[in-house]
Amino acid sequence: MNSLLSTTDLIIFFGSLLAVMGMGLWVGRKDDSSEDYFLAGRNTRWWGVAGSIFGSNVSANHIVGMMGVGFAVGFAQSHFEITAIAGLLMLCYFFLPVYRKLNVYTLSDYLSRRYDDRSRVSYALIMVIIMVVIQMVPGFYIGSRSINILLQGDTGRKAVAETVVTEDGNLSEIKILHGGDQYGSVPQVLVNNKKVDFIEASLINGQVEKVNLTAPVPQAYLNAPLTVSFSGGNLNNPEISPGDVEPFNYKLGILIMAVVTGAYVIIGGLKAVIITDVIQSVLLLMAGLLVAFITFSQPEIGGWTSLMERDLGSEGVERFHLYNSSNHPALPWTGVLSGLMVLHFYYWGTNQFIVQRALSATTDKEAKMGIIAAGFFKLLIPFFSIGTGIAAYYLFKDRNLEVAQDAVFIKLLTELISPLGFGLVGLIAAGMIGAILSSLDSMMNSAATIMTFDLYKKYINPEADDRKLISVGRIWIIVFIVLAGFITIYTMDPNSKDSFFLHVAKHQGNLIAGVVVAFFLGMCWKRATASGGVAAILAGVLFSYSIPVFYGNLAEGNQFLIDLFGERLNFMHGAFVSALLSAVVHVVISLKTQRDEEKGKLTWTGLEIFSTKELSVFVKTLLFSLAIYATLATLVVMQTLTPVNAAWIGSLWTFGCFFLSAYSKAKTSGISVFAEDRFWAGGLAGSAIFMLFFFF
Question: Read out DSSP for 667-686?
Fold first, then answer.
């Protein structure tokens, strides 16, 4: 095994895992009440909220996956981080004040109070599915795969080939595009993912040299579209391909993560989760920034400015831009500015495992400052992850290295970090795995909180005391760990090449459109009824799965529609349309059903969080700001205004709006404007707007 981890690296790596587990067990050893266990005693300072929110959000995919996307596609992936600021600020000033004023444990509890138990149960089931199946399973997968790649090191690369057909559509030859490397035995050639006996590969110096047609091609393969791949041939295990993860080690990695994370989450509850998240967030930032610094320091790159100049030059491929065409299959600009915002409002404002961290804060002020600080950390990711991937593209090009998208991070460790020594690879590995663990522990705790309070306490044992609730919560954590572990082992291919970041976002998007509508209309519209709320939640799921099918049928043969949105509807477009239709369903049914006057008071105005005048001013300011942004974008497209100038105008306008509000609040409260959270929120929002225009 050619491990990337030296003895020093291994000590740092495993030592950090044990230290994190030990710290989690220690801080959570005295949880005496359910509030201590599930909400950290509502005694978390702003830095704990910031670290836990950031740590819960990021994973190894933010380093490994996004770096690969930056390498292959470019900076457009940054939209997931930059536009997330809108969701964070929505949580900070619109959703969180409602939750904290009502003193809820779970967001299901809010839906139950605002609507009825049908909405509570619907939301609880959706959230558990998202956290356990859509979040924990990819977390176990990415974590185990990353650990194993680090431990096994560079084990080669699979060969790539394509078919060559004649004018009459018959197979003439199989052309080797890349011979791979480190083959120990001749691989099996697969055609359309099936083993065949009419094709044989040959090796030379550990690479696939050529593929021979050893027998007449069967009629079934002559005219069909053919895909060619290779199976087996790994130097140490002929059953897997070069670069693949050993299946046994993959399962062992899942077990290790389950034991390490489960130990401190089961014992320590949310208090343990938060303190370990903070530590793991620091490790992740150190790891990401270290890889970025060393990569950008290479003479071929020469720093960020030189890289951007090169990218825009004659040899550049212009990866430093944020906006793709509206029919782009992965990141269309229309989807980014519509459906992605729906996902952000769900993820940051109505998502139990994120919001639970803010609910644990000592005061409203501490919660808000923690959320804003987490936002600033989010804006670092495009630079140390996606930007590093772009740098790697030019670096490997200059060094004549052909690297697959999913191997960029490991190749950087091999080429740049490992030769330096000093335990740097171990530190980076600890940061990467720590990021995964911080996401897993949050989902374990939050899913258990929902099941304990929204199922057990609500319907099974309403009189349960704190001790009983904590015991039940621990049982649910064990159940979810076992369930997610088995699903990961038996359904996930350890050597899949899928982009799991987009995979997770897509499946979340199919479940949450109606959830966002139910929360939003419930808070802003006193006429919203219980039947309207549950109908919106269920309709959102139905629309999300049916609309892409409907669009596919509509787009068939319709070139205008294909040119506009592509042959298949991007999941972000689908999420936006689903949210709009769910809102229509909510409004129609609410108008036709009996309104509950008391429940209608649980809105922004009814809870006296905002006055009608304040909401009116906000809406007018928002609409005017959007008009300014649209005008700036139009001028940039027309080349009347440079992206840099648009960035400064847009960011200064945004900061100014927040500053005026902060100044007014500070003057009324008799404090410095720098002590007002809206001042820092303005800096955060202004920074995001600057990036959206600067990288136009």
Answer: HHHTS-GGGSHHHHHHHHHH
Decide if 467 is inside a domain: no
Ranges assigned E (strand) in 329-477? none
* C-alpha of 691 from chain center: 19
| CA distances in angstroms from 435 to 103, 152, 276, 669, listed in the order given | 30, 20, 10, 39
Q: Which residues contact 389 (CB under 8 A, 6 or more apart)?
A: 66, 67, 68, 69, 70, 71, 72, 408
- Pull the structure tokens for residue 291: 């890889």
**Do 181 and 279 fall into the same domain?**
no
Q: How many domains does the chain have?
A: 3
Residue 346: burial class (beta carbons within 10 Å; 0-12, 13-18, 19+): buried
Nearest to 350 by CA among 118, 578, 130, 570: 130
Instruction: State whether residue 658 is helix, strand or coil.
Output: helix
Cα separation, 163 vs 645, whole angstroms: 50
Contact between residue 424 and residue 290 where contact means Cβ atoms under 8 Å apart: yes
| Euclidean distance between CA atoms 124 and 121, whole angstroms | 5
Q: Are residues 564 and 550 in the same domain?
A: yes
Same domain as 290, residue 173: no
Which of 97, 94, 119 minimizes the C-alpha distance to 108? Answer: 119
Q: Rounded to whole angstroms, how far apart are CA atoms 172 and 113?
A: 68
- Cα of 626 vs its chain's centroid, Å: 26
Q: What is the Cα–Cα distance from 72 to 60, expressed in whole angstroms? A: 18
* Domain of 304, in residue numbers: 46-155+247-460+486-601
Query: What three-state secondary structure class fits 235?
Result: coil
| Residue-wise pLDDT tens digits, 589-624 | 999 998 888 888 999 999 999 888 888 999 999 999
CA dist., res. 232 & res. 241, Å (int): 4
Given a cut of 70, the residues of the chain with pLDDT beneath it are 1-4, 24, 27-41, 59-61, 153-154, 167-171, 217, 219-225, 313-317, 402, 404, 406-407, 496-506
- Residues found in the chain: 696
The continuous run of DSSP H or E covering 340 comes out as helix 339-344
Residue by residue, DSSP assigns 356-387 as HHHHTBSSHHHHHHHHHHHHHHHTTHIIIIIH
- 204 and 141 in a single domain? The answer is no
CA distance 162 to 444: 44
DSSP 78: G
| Spatial separation of the C-alpha atoms in residues 43 and 41, rounded to whole Å | 5
Let me know whether 406 and 510 are in one domain. Answer: yes
Sequence letter at residue 495: N
296 plus 345 within the same structural domain: yes
